[in-house]
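Notes continue from the previous slide.

Worked example: a multi-chain complex. Inputs as given:
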Amino acid sequence: MTPQEHLRTPDDGVADEATAERSEQSDSPTCPDCGVASVTDAERAEAHCPECGLVLEEDIVDRGPEWRAFDENQRDSKRRVGAPVTETLHDRGLSSVIGWQDKDAYGQSLSSRQRQKMQRLRTWDERFRTKSARERNLKQALVEVDRMASALGLTDAVRETAGVIYRRALEEDLLPGRSIEAMATASLYAAARQAGMPRSLDECAGVSRVERKEIARAYRYLAGELDLAVQPATPEQFLPRIVSDLDLPDGVEREARRLLEAGKRANVHSGKSPIGLAAAAIYAAAMLTNETITQHEIGEAADVSVVTIRNRYRELLEATEQ
DNA sequence: ATGGTTTTTACTGCGTC
DNA sequence: GACGCGGTAAAAACCAT
């Protein structure tokens, strides 16, 4: 007989039942015989029924502190753990902070000389901290920009521009409240448009980890605060990419340009999505140049629905006839 | 919040291969 | 029968107010 066993009641079967039940409801199990809540005995690390003495739990782990505190001060000075660690900060939030009270480790006030020294240290600590925080932020954003830019087939120049835009946003404290990813994507979107090789919001959202809506919001904010000189995208800007994606001859692109010109004179383009118009122009141009291409294929390449292509290309053709 | 506009989704009939 | 195309209605998204 082990020492533990002789603590049990004669009826071992009942005790086993209680043990099985315990696994479901963790604290203060009730006695199966008396239906009374058990009391825990910290000395023996056991929980037993106050009525019949049946031991309901053994070898309980005491997760509380082993010291006693009589007021807040003691609680602070006796506890040996700090704030929870987090993975979102580079040092997991473990970095030490220079206290704001001018007291030394024993709680004595500092001399004025020491106070000045501490003040200088605080200043520099703060500078260093914010600077490095920004560096990290920027670094991460640039990595994202690079990844997305290459996924979208954008040139190095566009990446540079996006980097500049992001840096400006960072310097003007536009980041708080917005995700790095959203801002990075918005910067890239803006840069691509500025460079005259726009990608649609949908395309950007496709390679980004944030959704389209958030990117649009970040972009609007960015464009507003930084008053970026971004002209609205024109349908023509989308032509080369779609045409080359579909391996269509240059003649189609020329014809599409011509159609868009005519369309512009007829004011077909106002209020319509430029990419939809571009897709429609390409479809119409392909038909006019006897290229076999389906609306669906173009819609796929341009991320536009076939319905939109139909509507736009009908309007385009009407415009060219008059 | 709301209304107007555009785009998308889903469903339809028609013609062709 | 599958596919491309045209049309339509309703839903969703977007934008200015």
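Summary box: The two ends of chain A are 106 Å apart (CA to CA). The CA atoms of residues 67 and 78 of chain A lie 8 Å apart.
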